[in-house]
From TrEMBL:
Organism (species): bioreactor metagenome
UniProt protein name: histidine kinase
Residues of the HAMP domain: 17-69
Subcellular location: Cell membrane
Keywords: ATP-binding, Cell membrane, Kinase, Membrane, Nucleotide-binding, Phosphoprotein, Transferase, Transmembrane, Transmembrane helix, Two-component regulatory system
One Gene Ontology molecular-function label: ATP binding
Length: 284
């Protein structure tokens, strides 16, 4: 009886050690990830559930490592983008102070640079809210042609100044959709601004109802997007060879998807085409 009891104790201790040891290793790996070390683990376990858990944790570590690197690159880029208008504003302010430049001209440039800075800060604030559960859309049944027309009108002066012609092709009848006007306007403006940056002479903006789907096309006649950049242009923090800050198009994608739509980008013989589709008049 005594021998049996001793054997039972040793068996229990052995099994406990066998079970607790791999769990302790997994726990240490989780702490390592929590401390910001995303090095993947090459441990293997006989237990199928633990082995599956480790695979999931390695996948999470890989994602976090990628996100961390992208974020560092993004902040390097954005610090440069924020510094550029600030330095310009300071330079023209000094020009006014020492009377080395016409005051009105310098003030206009300072205001323009201030607007750029404000836009970048607003995009940073928006991207910080992307994916937030608390973010609410203020929905109304609106004519998308009117939202696009308003965006085009606000960028008309910019287009004229850089000799870009904005060519519109809208349905004659209203193209109604339940949407958040403010956020959808931001998405359209971001694509139009992106197109103006690369267009050579023309941009084409289409808004039509096709077989109950709303199709919006914004196309520019600029250079094609590099093949290596194309798969990543909507990815947050990704900045291609000629990209600006790595924010704008990720915001566009987020907004369109929140409105139950999809956005695609492709190179064409004309240049680059963005296509937004709200399928079968989806209502939010």
């Amino acid at each position: 009886m005594c021998v049996t009891g001793i054997l039972t104790i040793f068996t229990t201790l052995f099994l406990s050690e066998k079970i607790s040891k791999p769990i302790k290793k997994v726990s240490e790996f989780a702490k390592q990830i929590g401390d910001g070390d995303f090095t993947r683990s090459n441990m293997e376990f006989e237990d199928k559930e633990l082995d599956e858990l480790l695979k999931v944790m390695n996948k999470s570590a890989e994602y976090l490592d990628k996100y961390d690197k992208e974020q560092k690159i993004f902040f390097q880029n954005i610090s440069h983008e924020l510094r550029t208008p600030l330095m310009s504003m300071m330079g023209y302010a000094e020009a006014i102070k020492y009377n080395v430049m016409e005051k009105e001209k310098a003030c206009n440039i300072i205001l323009e640079e201030g607007d750029k800075l404000k836009d970048m800060i607003e995009e940073l604030l928006y991207i910080s809210r992307m994916g937030s559960i608390s973010e609410e859309l203020h929905l109304s049944n609106l004519d998308l042609r009117e939202i696009l027309s308003s965006c085009i009108e606000s960028k008309q002066a910019t287009a004229v100044n850089i000799s870009i012609e904005l060519i519109c092709d809208f349905d004659k009848k209203p193209v109604m959709y339940i949407c958040d006007e403010k956020s959808l306007r931001r998405a359209f403006l971001n694509i139009i601004e992106n197109g103006l940056r690369y267009a050579k002479s023309k941009m084409y903006i289409t808004c039509k109802l096709i077989n109950k789907d709303i199709v919006i096309i914004i196309e520019n006649d600029g250079e094609n997007i590099n093949d290596k950049d194309m798969p990543y242009i909507f990815q947050r923090f990704y900045k291609g060879d000629k990209g600006k800050s790595g924010i704008g198009l990720s915001i566009v994608k987020s907004i369109i998807e929140k409105h139950k739509g999809n956005i695609y980008c492709e190179n064409t013989n004309k240049g680059v085409k963005f296509t937004i589709i709200f399928y079968n008049l989806n209502m939010l």
